[in-house]
Amino acid sequence: MSKLLKVSSKVKLNKAFLKQLDAAAVTALEQTAEALHTEVVQTQVVPRMDGNLQGEAFFVDKSQSKKGKVSLVHATPYARRLYFHPEYNFRHEAWTDPDGKTHQGNPNAKGLWYEDWLPGGKESDFVKRTFEKLYRRLADL
């Protein structure tokens, strides 16, 4: 018969460090969303007429970041319609309407403008890479 050894251990959590990690995760999440917001604007994929859809009506909602959720919001009544209709013929260059008002297009404007950052898109790892880099820096890891 073999003898059983009794082993005991004591774990002491560093609560201050855990709070620091949690705070770093929230900040990294918010900064990742801001980076994605900037990336979307700079790639000029959002359809543009007067600039509202990618300008002042396009923002990062951080109100639930402590719960692990941030959102990119297009606060216009027509955003959903434009997003889910890639068949629309979006203008890619500046144009003048019949009233003489000049409007700016976006050279890469399209419906489904987030598809490059979603799974299977050419930038699908952007969010993961950005969060990881920011989190490591903020958490001092």
Task: Give the key terms.
141 residues, alpha+beta, two-stranded antiparallel sheet, 3 helices, elongated
Polypeptide structure, described:
The chain is 33% helix and 9% strand. It has 141 residues and is of the alpha+beta class. It has one domain (25-138). The strands form two sheets. It has a two-stranded antiparallel sheet. It has a two-stranded antiparallel sheet with strand order 3-4. Strand 3 (95-96) and strand 4 (102-103) form a beta hairpin.
Q: State the strand order across the main sheet.
A: 1-2
Low-confidence stretches: none
Strand content: 5-15%
Tell me the number of strands: 4
Summarize the structure.
This protein is of the alpha+beta class and 141 residues long.
Write the layout of secondary structure elements.
Layout: H1 15-42, E1 58-61, E2 71-74, H2 79-83, E3 95-96, E4 102-103, H3 126-138
Antiparallel strand pairs: 1-2, 3-4
Helix pairs in contact: 1-3
